[in-house]
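SUBJECT: protein chain
CONTENTS: sequence, structure tokens:
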Amino acid sequence: MNPDPEKLIDLIGARAKNLFLTGQLLCTEAVLTVINQGLKGDLPPELAIRIASGLPEGLGGSACLCGALNGGVLALGLFLGRNRPGFGNGNRVRRSARILHDRFRETFGGTCCRNLTRDFRHDRDLHFKHCAELTAEAARMTARIILHERPDVVKQADTAFLQQVDATSRARLKKIAGLFQR
């Protein structure tokens, strides 16, 4: 039985937020990783993280374009992007990226990391929680667009992965274990 698309979208947002809040992944990485694994994209998990790793905190810490939005655009490319050169075959992903950008801007009042976090700059906890919300919502918005454009993807969703909720202590153990896997 196929999962309900709206429940799936909520699971995607919650999982991205959990991975961010537990410090396992940064904003861009969380959005791309959760959508890739949750909707069974083509990227090995390590490659998804590596591709996204320069984009968090507004393009490498420059506080420009929000990393969560960047992750969403990467995920759109993964599921809706063109796979060969040529004119016209990238229209769907570009249109979808514009829709994501516009919805994000309408919801949060901008797309620039610096502006989105301005009110929280001097309070690390509030800043972190705010970014977790941006991450969750960017993941939900992106998933909604993907599922609208490719409703067949619902059938392949990995709900077991999306339903995982890591405690901070478990996340720390995963991070420590990761140090030894290099």
Remarks:
- Residues 82 and 88 are 9 Å apart (CA to CA).
